[in-house]
Amino acid sequence: MGFFSFFSKEKKETLDKGLSKTKESVFSKIARAVAGKSKVDDEVLDNLEEVLVTSDVGVETTLNIIKRIEDRVARDKYVNTQELNAILREEIAALLTENNTVDSDDFHVPADKKPYVIMVVGVNGVGKTTTIGKLAYQFKKKGLNVYLGAADTFRAAAVEQLDIWGERVGIPVIKQKMGADPASVAFDTLNSAVANNADVVIIDTAGRLHNKIGLMNELTKIKNVMQKVVPDAPHEVLLVLDGSTGQNAFEQAKQFTKATEVTAMAITKLDGTAKGGVVIGISDQFKIPVKYIGLGEGIEDLQVFRKKEFVDSLFGETGK
């Protein structure tokens, strides 16, 4: 069996549409990089390096990809520029497969962890609360009993937004008054979830990054308090990043991975940007699974990230 069997035609269309701006940008840059050239030589590789860096793939990952293509050209002796897209697709998919864990199953949570506790982190404005709502919807659609915890108590808007998602999806949201102790909210959420036989608990946290020590202490406190109710919580720390910010998303990933033990990532807002290459770089550089990607405003527009499908969509045929 393969995970790709879950990838429906509708999901592929959503992926293709969501990545269209990045794809058009990358293809136009590649076309310029190989203009007038019949084979992949040093000049083409230099131009391709610039294409990847300016597409927000990141310097280190770009150098890895170029090295792989250089090796491929040396091995095959002659590679014409018509083959470049296919080679890029193959080598990037191979790089991500080697450097990362296997793709996630379709919104799966382990059956032996009940409730399965997800703590969501990320700066304000990246689509964190929206991602939580869409994730909760997907879990509920699978028949799971889901609880949400509004532990971002520093912004009234965050609690209100989570409340709106809870009502929309039909899922209980545990909250306290504005400015309440986030750890207390997490504690109450887990108590309610356990009492009501919940399968999944998703805890929203504050997105302040100006003080890394303060953030680290707050997240550690939330973890410690949750463990009084569910000893091995959280089972997942999900970092949400805004793909449209390009290299800034790399910097946020660096800061949050220093502040807490991030175990998975979600990259949002890919539909409105030409910076989708950032997914490749982040997936490669941090060795932390990119688990979900956001491809639009619709409730169904959060997808499980599958490396092969993503790379195929980004570097597949265009102009049709």
Give a written overview of the molecule:
This protein has 320 residues and is α/β, with parallel strands linked by helices. The protein has twelve helices and eight strands. The protein has an eight-stranded mixed sheet with strand order 3-2-4-1-5-6-7-8, with helices on both faces. α10 links the parallel β5 and β6 (264-268). The longest helix has 18 residues, at 59-76. The two termini are 32 Å apart. Residues 1-5 have low confidence and may be disordered.
Strands ordered across the widest β-sheet = 3-2-4-1-5-6-7-8
Taken in chain order, the helices and strands follow as: HHHHHEHEHEHEHEHEHEEH
The percentage helix is 40-55%
Could you give the distance between the termini?
32 Å
Shape: elongated
Radius of gyration in whole Å, from Cα? 21 Å
Q: What is the mean pLDDT? A: 88
Q: How many E strands?
A: 8
Q: Major sheet, described briefly?
A: 8 strands, mixed
Number of helices: 12
Contiguous low-pLDDT stretches (5 residues minimum) are 1-5
How would you classify the helix and strand content by structural class? alpha/beta
Strand content: 5-15%
Can you tag this structure with a few keywords?
50% helix, 320 residues, eight-stranded mixed β-sheet, 12 helices, 8 strands, elongated, single chain, alpha/beta, disordered N terminus
